Amino acid sequence: MGWEAMTVGSAIVAEAPARGAGLNQVIGLTIAAAVIVALMLWRVTRTAVIGSTG
């Protein structure tokens, strides 16, 4: 029982970081996309305001 439990436990422990890394990658890409979209919108609105007031 001891060896089997340790093998299963180590497999679960080894698999957890891989899933976590995938999740972190998804979160990172989502944040990067949101930042890019926000910067584009900010530039568009800023140039539109400058153009209308100027």
From TrEMBL:
Record field: transmembrane: 23-42
Key words of the record: Membrane, Transmembrane, Transmembrane helix
Keyword Transmembrane helix appears in the UniProt entry: yes
UniProt-recorded name of the protein: Uncharacterized protein
